[in-house]
Amino acid sequence: YKISIPEGATLANCVGKTGIRIVGRGGGFIDARNYVSGSITPILTFDGCSDVHVDFNYIGQPLATPADPANGIGYRGAAVVYFKNGCNGAAVFGDFRHAIYGVLSGDYADWTKGGNRDIFCKLNAYRVGYPVAHYLAEDVRSDLHVEDTHRAAYYAGVKYGSIRASVKNQYIAPIQVLL
After folding, report:
1. Taking the model in full, what pTM does it have?
2. 138: closest CA among 98, 87, 62?
3. Among 29, 55, 79, 110, which is 20 to 30 Å from 11 by CA?
């Protein structure tokens, strides 16, 4: 499925829903947008949702200068899956390429958007700035196979978290798993 919507637009925004299943069975999204701003544009947003299962692939547009600290990996692209405001019970599986975030939970600058719990991620990621980033979350688990990244995982303010990550090549950031 080709995404051709304006930068800043979200493909789907689910608020307060339960029992969500998005299953691509090997299919997924091709994002035709070239990201010029540093703002975060989610593809799928889950706001206060529970019992969410997501399994699909994502391909964004390659960055011209992946090692550029202002425009490279970790600074431009989409947030493929975004959880905020107390989501509970989620699993994300996929092969994600060319994004700023694979799975984003909470917000780096706004603590009120955190409070997500029981999120499991099993991802293959190529040139994704942050394959997994959790801010103020609880009971989060990640199994990651990552190549060409800024940080493989970022866990800030996480209670009861685990990470298994294999990482090849890094850009800009000297630490791959930041707790």
Report:
1. 0.95
2. 87
3. 110
CA–CA gap between residue 51 and residue 18 (Å, rounded): 6
3-class secondary structure for the chain? Answer: CEECCCCCCCCEEEECCEEEEEEEEEEEEEECCCCCCCCCEEEEEEECCEEEEEEEEEECCCCCCCCCCCCCCCCCCEEEEEEECCCEEEEEEEEEEEEEEEEEECCCCCHHHCCEEEEEEEEEEEEEEEEEEEECEEEEEEEEEEEEECCCEEEECCEEEEEEEEEEEECCCCCCEEC
Tell me if 1 sits within 8 A of 29, measured CB to CB: yes
Residue-wise pLDDT tens digits, 138-150: 999 999 999 999 9
Residues sharing a CB contact under 8 Å with residue 70, sequence separation 6 or more, in sequence order: none
| Residue 23: CB atoms within 10 Å | 11
- CA-to-CA distance for 130 and 172, rounded, in angstroms? 12
